[in-house]
UniProtKB/TrEMBL annotation:
<dbReference type="GO" id="GO:0010507">
    <property type="term" value="P:negative regulation of autophagy"/>
</dbReference>
<feature type="domain" description="Myotubularin phosphatase">
    <location>
        <begin position="124"/>
        <end position="499"/>
    </location>
</feature>
<dbReference type="InterPro" id="IPR048994">
    <property type="entry name" value="PH-GRAM_MTMR6-9"/>
</dbReference>
<dbReference type="GO" id="GO:0019903">
    <property type="term" value="F:protein phosphatase binding"/>
</dbReference>
<dbReference type="InterPro" id="IPR029021">
    <property type="entry name" value="Prot-tyrosine_phosphatase-like"/>
</dbReference>
<dbReference type="InterPro" id="IPR011993">
    <property type="entry name" value="PH-like_dom_sf"/>
</dbReference>
<dbReference type="InterPro" id="IPR030564">
    <property type="entry name" value="Myotubularin"/>
</dbReference>
<dbReference type="GO" id="GO:0005737">
    <property type="term" value="C:cytoplasm"/>
</dbReference>
<comment type="similarity">
    <text>Belongs to the protein-tyrosine phosphatase family. Non-receptor class myotubularin subfamily.</text>
</comment>
<dbReference type="GO" id="GO:0046856">
    <property type="term" value="P:phosphatidylinositol dephosphorylation"/>
</dbReference>
<dbReference type="Pfam" id="PF06602">
    <property type="entry name" value="Myotub-related"/>
</dbReference>
<dbReference type="InterPro" id="IPR010569">
    <property type="entry name" value="Myotubularin-like_Pase_dom"/>
</dbReference>
<protein>
    <submittedName>
        <fullName>Myotubularin-related protein 9 isoform X3</fullName>
    </submittedName>
</protein>
<dbReference type="Pfam" id="PF21098">
    <property type="entry name" value="PH-GRAM_MTMR6-like"/>
</dbReference>
Length: 529
């Protein structure tokens, strides 16, 4: 596609930009295939705004006489206003933004064109792989193996080419288990707890249906997971009623009679449309300028966002407790196994495993549990909170994860090697990025488009020395202990750094945190000298 076809007016002079935390400024507006660029032309100012068009969630235009105003609402929750002289110019710019911000073709997105001078396409792509993860866990190699049964992505389109499965389950059995699980997502190992040898396994729901179908290979797989232990736990992220209803549409759950060594625990977690609408209500509450505290608190509560945070942390805590304290292996699934399943397995690993709390370890965890595990980023993050488009498969599950991690960071300020700045960066990148890490919905799609050969990896870029310094926590003190976040309502707070990031209050808070950070770094240098 020629981007120029969609750009009737490439630049406009004498445009007034109004944006949060800055006074209005007058300058030149330029539009390219992927960016909106504003250059301040006022004397003594060199300020520029460089906005990725993919970051635009919605635009609103208003014509008044011979000029017009475009309001741009971004996926990172910024709201910009452009006062443009000339009605035709205003309409042309609006049309270009509407078209270019919603490109469906992944290979036309900016990561395929981004070529910074300090990065090479020959650089290693990614931090982890199933093969590397397996070789790092020598203790389990006598009971678990690396299978390449999915090497062509035909058995399960949303899984990576290699997965870790029990040694006693061969590839032929895996093919039968895959047919018995929604989307082919048969159980795979995602975490090995070195302290006691227990594991976390995740999958999608079994396709038992109304006739209570069975799969002997699936039942044998479950036995192989606990291998001599007295029992295991299944954490189903649906209510018992939802699981029962799923049988009417071909889904279902593991019955006690067929999986008699496994205890099923139901913890209902909202997903899909309910979660997206919760985000929309929260952002609307945060943008309410009425300054009425009672009304604000009522809107915050009605959004139910903090309730979703509480449920996610509580369920992850239950999972971690089963493994760490009770000493039993756990299988996690909901329906598809691509959303809430990944959310709680990630949080549980953060709670239990000190290596996941380092900067590199956390990024590798996200790569394994979200990118490689098949979270459909392209579908879930197509729009954020402002879009006027009809909801389809959007859902802010990854943003909910980052909020939960922020709650842990807030409650345990010494336990994580990374800072809030990293979480904010990831919250922006997942919706609009220069990098290819969050493109597509799974590894099969990335492989077909050559994402790893033609784009740069965000996680690798975040580990460069300059970035590492920016995103590190100067208070970090490693601990081998599990960290158990409180889920009491008074312990959970609104993530102001994200949801109120474009307000004056958040800017003051950010400046104060930066000052404290610099003081701690200076004290550290003095202590070493």
């Amino acid at each position: 596609m020629e981007f120029s076809e969609h750009i009737k007016t490439a630049n406009v002079e004498d445009v007034v930009l109004r944006q949060p935390l800055h006074p209005p400024s007058r300058g030149t507006l330029c539009i390219t295939g992927h960016h909106l660029l504003f250059s301040d032309r006022e004397e003594g100012s060199s300020r520029q705004v460089f906005l990725l068009l993919r970051n635009i969630d919605a635009i609103e235009k208003r014509i008044s006489g011979s000029s017009g105003t475009i309001t741009i609402k971004c996926k990172d929750l910024r709201v910009l206003q452009l006062d443009i002289p000339g009605m035709e110019q205003c309409l042309n710019i609006a049309r270009s933004i509407e078209t270019l911000s919603c490109l469906d073709c992944v290979s036309e997105m900016y990561p395929f064109f981004y070529r910074p001078s300090d990065l090479s396409l020959q650089d290693q792509w990614g931090l982890s792989s199933p093969e590397k993860h397996y070789t790092q866990m020598k203790e389990l190699q006598n009971k678990w193996r690396l299978s390449t049964v999915n090497k062509e992505y035909t058995l399960c389109p949303s899984y990576p080419a290699a997965v870790i499965v029990p040694m006693d389950v061969d590839d032929e059995a895996l093919k039968k288990v895959a047919k018995f699980r929604q989307g082919g997502r048969f159980p795979v190992l995602c975490y090995y707890h070195r302290k006691n040898g227990m594991v976390i396994v995740r999958s999608s729901q079994p396709l038992t249906g109304a006739n209570r179908k069975r799969c002997r290979e699936d039942e044998h797989f479950f036995q192989a997971v606990i291998d001599g232990s007295d029992k295991g736990y299944i954490i189903d992220t649906r209510s018992s009623q939802q699981a029962q209803q799923a049988r009417m549409t071909g889904g279902g759950f593991e019955s006690k009679s067929c999986y008699n060594h496994w205890k099923r625990l139901h913890r209902q977690m909202e997903r899909g449309k309910a979660l997206q609408e919760s985000l929309i209500k929260l952002v609307e509450a945060c943008g309410d300028e009425a300054n009425n505290m009672d009304r604000w608190l009522s809107k915050l509560e009605n959004s139910k966002w903090l309730s979703h945070v509480q449920t996610a942390l509580s369920t992850a805590g239950l999972l971690a407790e089963c493994v760490e304290r009770d000493g039993h292996s756990v299988l996690v699934h909901g329906s598809e196994g691509t959303d809430s399943t990944l959310l709680i397995s990630t949080l549980a690993q953060l709670i239990m495993d000190p290596s996941c709390r380092t900067l590199e370890g956390f990024l590798a965890l996200l790569e394994r549990e979200w990118v490689q595990a098949g979270h459909p980023f392209q579908q879930r993050c197509a729009h954020s909170a402002y879009s006027h488009a009809r909801l389809q498969q959007e859902s802010p599950v990854f943003l909910l994860l980052l909020d939960c991690v922020w709650q842990v960071w807030h409650q345990f300020p010494l336990a994580l090697e990374f800072s809030e700045a990293l979480l904010l960066r990831l919250a922006t990148e997942v919706y609009a990025s220069d990098y290819g890490t969050f493109l597509c919905n799974n590894e099969r799609e990335r492989c077909a488009l050559g994402v790893k050969e033609k784009t740069h990896c965000l996680f690798q870029a975040l580990l460069r020395s300059r970035e590492r310094e920016l995103y590190s926590n100067p208070l970090y003190e490693p601990t081998e202990l599990a960290i158990w976040p409180s889920v009491q309502p008074q312990s959970l707070q609104l993530w102001r750094g994200f949801f109120l990031r474009w307000t004056q209050q958040a800017r003051h808070l950010e400046e104060a945190q930066e000052e404290i950070r610099n003081m701690i770094i200076e004290w550290g240098k003095l202590a070493l000298s």
